[in-house]
Amino acid sequence: MSEGKLRILTVSAHPHDFTWFSGTLGKHVERGDEATVCVVTHGGSTHREDWMEELRKPESERDASIVNASADKYIEQKEQNLRDAAAIFGVTDIRMLNFPDKPFLISEHPEVIDRIAELIAEVRPHIMLTESPFTDCGRPMRYRSDHTEVGIAAAEAKLRAELPRPGSTWRPHQVAMTFWPGEAFDHSQLDLVVELSDEWFEK
């Protein structure tokens, strides 16, 4: 890798969470940095607006083709939407871990920590952008659950990736900097802002 180029890893809960980092990643890819996007859950129960809209209707008025649509088809669609959106920003390295969502809990899927740690050891990022692991960010706690659990898993994985482990095939790696999206915090708590030009904002 050329001197001065960065490797960036994002770890988020759902496919659509890419939008929190998209402009930042686009600017970095444009300058020659490398970006890897890791999504922990398949997002199959998240933002199914058409499905939720049908369920709000009286049963006699529901569209059965929407109500009975396969979750697998929706999951495939979400991943393709993510890949298409990421390509707009020059990001092609997408890693889907495909854990279930709503809710995603580390206690039910403790292996997620090693999966993320292995990815950190493989990608060897200088910077990690991930969900906030904090439960009191000054914002409404709608972020508790999938988002917070993924933030906690990523923080633990970062520590595991730093240490040699008996029987492990990876070389330890220390992430230099970790950032969390401002979306999870009261805006008075923000300490870094990435300025996006009109070009990136429009994308």
Q: Keywords for this structure?
A:
single chain; 203 residues; alpha/beta; five-stranded parallel beta sheet; 7 helices; globular
The biggest sheet, with number of strands, parallel, antiparallel or mixed sense and barrel status, is: 5 strands, parallel
Low-confidence stretches: none
- Give me the number of helical elements: 7
Q: Count the strands?
A: 5
Query: Which H/E pattern describes the elements?
Result: EHEHHHEHEHEH
Structural class: alpha/beta
Helix content: 25-40%
CA-CA gap between termini: 28 Å
Strand ordering within the main sheet: 3-2-1-4-5
Please state the CA-atom Rg, rounded to the nearest Å: 18 Å
Query: What is the average per-residue confidence, as pLDDT, rounded to a whole number?
Result: 88
Question: β content, as a range?
Answer: 5-15%
Overall morphology = globular
